[in-house]
Amino acid sequence: MSTATDGRPVEESRHPVVARPDVFEYVFPAIRGVQAQRHFYVTMFPLRLVPRLFLFDEEELQANLRAQRSLNKARVPEMARYILDNPHNYVFSALTASVDADIRFDPLGAGGAEGRIGLLAIPMSARFVINDGQHRRAAIEQALRENPDMGDESIPIVLFLDIGLERCQQMFTDLNRYAIRPSRTLTILYDHRENGARIVKNIVKSSALWADLIEMERNNLSARSRKLFTLSALHGATKALLDSVEELTVDDAAKLARNYWDLVAEKVTEWQLVHEKKVTAGDVRRDFIHSHGIALHALGKVGNTLLRESRDSRKWRRSLTSLATIDWSRANSQLWEGRALIGGKVSKSSTNVTLTTNVIKKTLGIQLSPEEMRIETMYERGRS
């Protein structure tokens, strides 16, 4: 029984530290550590070995007989495409697995750092169970089918000794217990690859008004927030604005989008007042529809119609003149209930976005599309 750095006993590995000439083995460089008084190992596998060693049993088993969630096959193609589309800058985090075998660790030295670094020998007959990362494993397998040359690249592996189903299930629970997905807004802020994210960040960076109005980190705005919209809301609205608009660089698309949003802001007095700090953002969000994501999205869809007709901002300015006549007050339930509001609360469903878009289009004298007309007709019938 060996001891940890604080003097506590460490559970010994079950493998012998002797050569096994009669056993065929995989040998990897590795670091040995101690966690929960048990040895574990950090190593790297070539990508081509991941599908071979980490087999996934597609046979349906009851949840209590599995050590991981069932594979969501719908997630795999997108993850594989991410690897294939970004061969020079993709990032995949480590896989965590348990191995059921008599593994052998040969340290470089007798103690200290050299005692923790060495060669990890794993019998080819070993059984591996992925505790965290089965979707990454499936994505790697799919990507390798299209680009076998990626097989020489590596992925880090954290290996624990398998001590039974119950322990593996507990490891899965513990590994996912505190996993929190980052907010959509923060993901957009840190995304330097997707064009839509680059466009909206360009808009905010180049505009003092939008820098004041946009929350750059959180998805939800508190009553005391000084911001009117989240970056995620602006991203969705700008995506609707530029839908099917092609042959534009990121800079040109950002300039086009900013011109439109600046013209809209000129017609919404309360946005300007928040920017000038004459009213609080919380009061405006409380009292007006135009300061919620549904309205921003609807305005983006209206702008897309204008953009398809002309890219001349002077024509947009004339078309948007009547925007200032809309009564955006939430108290105007005669107009907004059933459209932007359901039972007095803002609704973000696609149907409600369309009904809100219809109000703006009719005010500006813009013809509704066939789908917008269909939804409008259903709404009117429901009211009668």
Automatic annotation (TrEMBL):
InterPro entries: DGQHR-contain_dom, DNA_S_mod_DndB. It comes from the Bacteria. This is DNA sulfur modification protein DndB. It comes from Amycolatopsis japonica.
